[in-house]
Structure formats: structure tokens, C-alpha cells
Request: fold
Amino acid sequence: MSLTRLKDFLDSYSVKYVLISHSVAYTAQGVAALAHVRGRELAKTVIVKLDGEFAMAVVPAAVHVDLALLKRITGAKTAELASELEFKTRFPDCETGAMPPFGNLYGMKVFVDETLSEDKEIAFNAGSHRELMRMAWADFERLVKPTVQQIVNERAWSTV
Reply:
């Protein structure tokens, strides 16, 4: 697994980031625990299909994307989760399920839940199940240009 593409991209913009290695973890909550990051602060990338087109929905690790909200804010007729089989070839440099939220590197729109923009930093899987990247939210927003809106149901936070 090579992080060359993401690192080269960030380095070309002189972006400061920290790469954190951890034991193998396959769930966002597992990564958060191993890396000592609160589940509310770790961003997980979920691949969705909006009217059949792939997009990234980026939400805190502790909650799920609200597909009805995503459908409403995008104006899509359909919004559904994409299966790993459907999208894994779109990320040849990433382990399946560990894609970083840089849709601009993969030809996808990115929708980020507004709660992630409330912190000065964002942390996310860096393309593998063993590495986490942390960087300034302002740099992430400047480079990715995501649509930032509520895509998590407010009631989901009552269980976190």
C-alpha cells in the first residue's frame, strides 16, 4: 500500500500533516480507539451513489450518513450506499474501506457533515487500515472544496 499519491498532492501544496501508524483496524471506531482519537473527531469516508454516480460522504466515525438528508441537499432522485465491490477499483492505491476523503483525487464530489468543520483539525484513514492522517481543517477544505452541510441525523448524536 502506497500513500504516494496523497502525500505528493499534499506536499505539492506545502500542507503540514501528521501520519500516525497504528495496529490494523477495519472500523472507524476501532481506528479511533487505537489512535486515541474521539469517534466524534475522526472522519470516515463512506462511498455513496447519488443518481448512480459515486460520491464521498464524510462523517464522524461514531455516526452514519443520513441518506435522506444527503438526497435532499444534493437534489438527487436516489441516494444509496455503494458496495465495496462496486467502488474498490476506483481506489487502486487504497485498501478497500480505508479511502482518504479526497474525492478530488478520484473524480468524486465530497460531502462533509458540518460537525467535522467545527474542529481546527481533521483526522482520517490515509489509504490503509494501519495509518491515520491528521491535518488542519482549513487546508483540507481549501484543497478538497467539499460541500459542508448536515448529512447526519441530529438524533444519532444522542447515542454517542
Remarks:
- The mean pLDDT is 86.
- The two ends are 32 Å apart (CA to CA).
